[in-house]
Every structure is written in C-alpha cells, then in structure tokens.
Amino acid sequence: MKRKKSKKAQSESGVSRRDFLRGAGVAVSGSILAGEGLLHATAESPGEVRGPGETKIVLRINGKAETLTLEPRVTLLDALRNHLDMTGAKRVCDRGTCGACTVMVDGKTAYACSMLAIEAEGRDITTIEGLVPEGKLTPVMQAFVDNDAQQCGFCTPGFVMAMTALMKRNPNPTPAEVDLALSGNLCRCGTYHGQKLAAMQVAKGVAREKIA
Amino acid sequence: MATTPCKYDWPAASDRKLIGKRISRIDGPAKASGRARYTYDTNPPGLLFGKIVRSPYAHVRITSIDISDAQKVPGVKAVRIIQNEGTEIQWEGDEIVGIAATSEEIAEDAARKVKIEYVHLPVFVADANLSAADQAARTKVTKDDQQGDVEKAFQDPDAVISEGFYGQPVICHCCLESHGTVVIFNDTPSVKVWQTTQAVSNNPGQYAEVLKVPASSVEVICQNMGGGFGSKFQVDRWGIECARLSHDAGGAPVKIMLERAAELQVAGTRPSLYGHIKVAAKKDGTLTAWQSESWGTGGVAGAGVPPLPYVFTGIPNQKIKYTAVSTNTGGARAWRAPNHPQSAVLTMGALDDLAARLNMDPIEFLTKNIELAPEPLRKYYLDELPIARQLSEWNKYWHPRGQGGSGPVKRGLGVSVHTWGGRGHNSTCNVTINADGSVEVALGSQDLGVGTRTVINIVAAETLGLPLEAVSVKLGDSRYPFSGASGGSTTVGGVSSSTRRGAVDARDALFEKVAPSLGVAADQLECANGRVQVKGNSAKSLTWKQACAKLGTKPIQVTGKNPGECNLSSSGVGGVQIADVSVDTETGIVKMNRMVAVQDCGLVIDLKTAESQVFGAMIMGITYSLFEEKIADAQTGKTLNANMEAYRLAGIGDIPDLVVHMMTGPGYDERGPVGLAEPPTVSPGAAISNAVANAIGVRVPTIPLTPDKVLAALNGNEKGATA
Fold it and tell me: What fold characterizes domain A139-206?
C-alpha cells in the first residue's frame, strides 16, 4: 500500500482523483464494486487486495475478453484509449460532466472516465466501436449524418451512445425525453438542433430491435 | 466580382447540381461511428505521455526548481525545465517543467515530485473595475478619438439621449479536444507532428524556426480536430516542449494534451469588454451622437481596440475612448469573430435602450438608421430585417418595453445586426485526374468541423460533372500544397476558389485529350452527369472512364490557386438575429423560446453544413449570453471554474426552437463564397440581452444573464439604462 505517498502528495500539491484512488488501494471481491461504490465496497468487503502496482485485469469489451496489465488507478476510459487503442470514447472533462467518454456497462450508459477499469471487470462493456462493424452505421449514427448532428465530431460518439441507449429502452421518445436522455452530454460546436432532428428521425422510423 | 464572363466563374444557378444543395458532410460517417481519429487519439508505437508542471499561482517569480526527484521516478524518460529560475510568471497555469514517461499515471507521479519555489508578486485580475485597474497602474489608453461635436449634439434640445453601462466578462474557447500534440523528433532530423490545429500549412515553419531544423523536415498532420474557434493557430510552447521531450527521449513519440483545467486556464480566452455608452437621436429616431468609454482585458497584454460603434459607423458625432487593461490571466486568442460579439453587446444594447426611450420599434429604429451602416451592408440588412421580423413573429410577440405580461414570467423579443469581412484566403491545391477515372484534390488545409472537406468535394465534383464519391479529398497534412490558416471565416472562400480553378483547368486539359475522338474542338465539350460530351448533345459523348482512358500513362495534374484569375470570392457579409425569451421575474431565470437567424455569406456551397454553422453559432451565443464567464479569484488570480461543471456550456435542454434562413439568389450568389463561421456568432449576446430588457423593462447591464444579475436589475441594484 502507498497510503503514505498519497498523504505526502496531498500536502505538497493537493490531491488528484487518481492519486486518491491509488492511495486508497483497491479491494476486489467478485464484481460487486461498481454498483456499490468503491469506498463502500472497500469498507464492507475487504476481499482480495490488488495494486497499487500493475495487475492483470480482464475486461469484456464488445463481447470480447481483453487481458490488460495496468495499475488499478487506471480509469476505464484510459484503459480503452491508452491500452487498447479504442479511441471512440473521448476524454474531455475527465470528471463526469461532459459525457464524451460515454460507454455502456451492462446495457446502461456510464462515464468511462469516472469508473476504474478494475471496477468494470466482469461487466459487459460496449463502446461505440462495438455497435457496428467499421464502415457500417447504426440507425442512430445514420441519423446523425443525415441531420448534420455533428461538426467537429469530438462529442459525437458520446451522444451517439447516449441516444442509442435511449432508443433501446424507449424507441419512440418525446422531444422532452430526448433532452433528458442527452442532458449528460455537452457539445461545444452547437449541434443540439441536429441531434433533436436525428432523434426524431430514429423515433419515427426505426424498430427497437434495429437500434444497435 | 467579375462583370465579364470568365472561365472559372461559378456555374449559373440553373446549372448547379451540387453547389447550394443540402449535402451531408462526407466525413460524417467516420465521426458518427467513432472511427474518426483526432490528435488526442493518436497512439504511435512506443508512445510516451507528457505532462506539464504549471504554475499554481497567477503572479510569481520562480526562485528555484528541483527536478531531481522527478527524474528518478521509474518510467520517466525525459524531464525539461521550460521556464527557469528568475522567470516572472504572469498567469496561473503557465508552463514551468515538462515530463515524458511511459504512462500517463507515471508522468503525473513525477510531476508531483517537481519542487518549485516562488516569491509572490501583486496580482491584478479585476478587469471589470476600471478605476481599480487605474490605481493598480494596469491600464493603457489605446484609442481616444472624436469626430464631429458630441457635446453639441447631446445639448440639442430636440435630442433624445440614452446612457448606460454594458459589458461582458472574459470567456474561454473550451474546445472539447483540448490543445495538444503528438511529436516524433529524431536526429535525421525529422519532426513529425500530429497537432490539433487551424493552420496545418503554417505550423511547420514555426516548429522549424524554434527547433532549428529545416522546415522541409517538419510534417504537421491534422486529419480531424475537436474544435478550435480561433484558439489553435500557433505552435504553442507545450508543442515545442513536446518535440524537445521526444528528442530527449531518443526520438520516441510523446503526447501532450492539455488537461481540462489547463485548457481553461491557458489555452485562450475572449477578451472582456465593458463600457459606459451615451447615444443621442433626434425625436424621429435619426442617430446623431455616440460617446463610449470602454475597456477590457485579454490578459497581461491587454486587448485590441473593439470596433465601436458597431455597424453604425456613420453616426455623425462620435467620441470614443478605449482602455486596455492588463491582468494576470491566461492570454486572449482570436475567439470566433474577434471583438465583434463584445462590440455588438455594447452598441446594440445602447441603441436598443435609445429606441425604447424614443418609443420606437427597434427594427424600425435600425432600419431608419441603416444609412449609417457602410455599403454594401445596408442592402443586406434591408433584405434581412423583414425576413427576421416575419420568422420571429415579431408583430405578434414584440411589445413596448416592460409590457411583457401581467404574470411573473415576462416574454420579450430583441434584435441585433452584425457584419464580418470574410473573403477567400490564399490556397493552393493539386487536382489530379488519373487514367482510371479517379480524381483527387489535395491541399494543406484543415477541417475544423465546418465541412471544409465536403465543400472541396462539392466544388470539384460539380466542376467535373461527377458524383461526390468520384472525388477523393485529401487535406490535413502539411506535405500537401500550402493552404491558408482557418481564421477570419476565409477557408471556404479560399479552398472553394482554388479547387474551382484547379478543377476547371484539369477538366480543360482532359477536354484537349478527348476532343479528337469526339471530332470537335476542346472548347465544344462539357462535363455532365458523369460524361464528357459535346455541349448540349449527350449522344456525342464518352463516359468519364472512357474519357480518362485517353490519358494513357500520363495523369492530368494541375495546380489551382487562390487568389487567381477571375474574382471568385469577395468580402463583407451581413446578418440579423432575433431572440425570443421568457424571464421569470421571481427566480431571475431566462429561458429561450426561439431564436431566428437570417444570414448572408455570399454563395452557399453546401446549404446543410452552412445552416449547421449558423445553428451552432446561435447555440454558442446562447451559451455565452446565459452561462459563460471565466471567473478569477480577486485575491489569488486563480481561475475558480477551470472545469466543465462550473464553466458551464449549454446543454440540449437549454436550446429553444432555432430558425435559420440563409440569404441566397441574386445579390448574394454572384459574390462567391465569402465567409460564414464567424458572423452568426456575433449577435446572440446583444439580441438576447435586448430581449430580456424588452421582457422585464430594465436592462441587465452585463452578460451572462444569470439569475442573480436579472434579479439585481429588477430590484434596481444594477445600473443599467431604463426606459
């Protein structure tokens, strides 16, 4: 454990989230972590302690098992981007505000920047790369293209994931439901108008089983 | 524009198959499917992660730097001191030490082991307070002019006068892809740079100069970029240091992308602008005098002089003073229409308050004074204002100021007009027609998300009579011919014009090769519907492939340039926006009901992406009008909201019904593509502020129109102009 190190860093220059997580160590017991919250789980179920050094982690991403060796403090987002070269999920705010890193964990949207890779063990992770083979588009993606719901495109994968998750649970949303479902994502170029149109295109024309 | 016909002229409206139509951006599928690669997504083998140790203080002198512990962290490959002992640091977040390590986490660990000591120097950040800035000796008067006699005009017994205070704070670009680079710098020498940049063709020379390598050894690549908005022209210090770290690490690739906090601290701001404005008009509404004392900051270097009065430059009597204020904050960069949005807030706000005093409909007031706007803008505004009036249902919803209804929620409408220069920048492209029929246009431009690739594709395909997918567009690499930086809304004008000239010349060269087999002179041929044919006679034709096969082993390769023969672009656009808001006078919350933009940009190449620019500009404008402010702590100068929770961008739920009307047809098309990205960003602040004043009867002096400010204005605690 490197608790001491963490305290020292805190006194020197404040404490970063990664540093905090690293210092806290990570206790893993089956796959209970993510749902319960890290600290809660640590306190309740000591289990096996892994880290703070590199450890082997197996993630199920887009239906495929990926074996990684990384420190427990590495976020799911950084594991995807820096270790697996899966760069569809973007790093923008890096703290759970903008939604550019949105993936699906067990079918529900999640901010990959705000979940440790080790927390995601045993879960079904879907990234935008897993929605459709390269060169093809899902109906949601096609609607983004048709309605120009993207400019620079950096926020787009996150929005596509959020809208895909919405359409899978509610294939015919109202405009207000679209606004709510996409409220966890931010765009700087200002593509919301196109996104609203895109959502309506999918809502009107696509059956639930064809969403993704 | 050319009055005599020229071979490069844009095709007549009746002949256009692609230009001016609604065409989906060609890189849309790659972006929507998450496959488009950005600088941030570039992971060459052996990649090292760079981190910058930044000053936590806004104004200090460095007294010592100790990097020895950082160097010892396992996995650290290079540590560089960027600014040495003795250096005066002028803003929080300035770069002091750079580190490259095998993982991002290790680089962060090492960054925390760098020991830097400072002595603190006086901090000044209170840019809204001119007298405080004067007392701190942080001011410099950079404009003090007058024309005519404002005092006489104000003393005219018939003059109706409005005085008020207006302004807006510093805001950030907040590009979603932060600034940054991936660099491989080895001893060949070779410098390969992936950079999120608005200036692919300009950057190599900047690297070469500082790194002391031949410019020919530098390649800069930017295939996709996550926003720029004016903040990504230069090679930044972190880019240079990224290269040096790569070199120090033996030529391994190094990636430095700014963390969000740094992005908001150091990677660019829009200057603030505040001002006391006094304006006068005759009782019939004719403007007679303008007096402004304004000031603002863009960081330590102050800020440029804003164009005041905005648009209505012909007001006969003017007295204008501007003071640049120096603050210990990260420096300003061009922010989408530099100085225009701020100047619109001051000018259109003051004119709106004066119209209210005159009991005039502001659209009628602006129209009455349109002769005070320069040519050729007057015509555009006179065309646009009635359209905006109709689309906003102005006659139904506008009311004299303060008559926004009897309930607690008041509705109001506000109008603003704006202008921008635009033009086509310098651009060079290579157009290649191969014997197999494939066509390529290559140029060292970049697509910020405005649809540059698509526009080039449309122009080339239109010129050659081909479908879009028959043309391959290559850009985003400095190895392609020079094309200008994407600034000032000059890219579409530039790349469209160079592509048009190149494609026409390539087409004509193909005609020369094909003419003998069709038995006519080359000038009797045309491209249409994927064929090369005798003009007006599709029976005497070859398919595109058959025609290109005549090239044998020698492809056609020509260069298209802008500027060049025939004027294909021009300068000067006008636009009008109307905001429709509801203001809850109990909570102070402003809700957008609708926003209308009527915009001119000369010839529209792609109507779909053009409209997107305007939708996006309005949304960006709603964001800065209601939410955005970079807040610096008065004591320490630290940015208090260097994150995306507190530096708030509008979400989808903040966006109302948006209406865009692009001006096209005679009077617009023949000016060629002029420029669009910037102008529609100008008016939202003024239009929304005016709408709020119309709703609640008092001016909220500064944007963003946050609830606290709205309530303060309603309670009479803010000194805005009233009518």
Answer: DNA polymerase; domain 1 (1.10.150)
